[in-house]
Amino acid sequence: LPQLGPHLPPRLTQQPWHLQYSTRRDGFSLRTLYRRGGQPGSPALLLIRDTEEQAFGAFSSSAIRCSSGFYGTGETFLFSFSPELKVFRWTGRNNFFVKGDVNLLMVGGGSGRFGLWLDGDLHRGGSHCCETFDNETLSAREEFCVQDLELWGLA
Length: 155
Prior knowledge:
Blueprint: E1 17-22, H1 23-26, H2 30-35, E2 44-50, E3 55-60, E4 77-81, E5 85-88, E6 98-101, E7 104-107, E8 116-119, E9 124-126, E10 143-154
Antiparallel strand pairs: 1-10, 2-3, 2-10, 3-4, 4-5, 6-7, 7-8, 8-9, 9-10
Pfam families: TLD
Domain TLDc: 1-155
Protein name: TLDC2 protein
């Protein structure tokens, strides 16, 4: 988390972060992630390590939750460590920040491509260049298998 500190909104830099969900502790379930996701107005940090040891994720300005449409603000961003930190910020081209249902969590979108997506049992995911963040593929391949996933929120 320390490397991401300078990239977070200034109001959050001195805040204590708390592990809300972890696949190691809580099992692989998107429903459980939503349940443990914290207060609706509270920001969230999603950290993923895939089976090829790539680390990447997303910062969401609001809690990760089930939703009928996209939510979030332009503070939302994607990032990867490959091997150094790269941050992909909002382009302003659309407002497709975060959307979740029981089978799919999406961060970033446009033209049918998602910056980051995860399936309902959090085993598989993918990353594509998307209009929201103009990001590179976060993982080594466009589709990946999740080894570990953590969701951090404010304590």
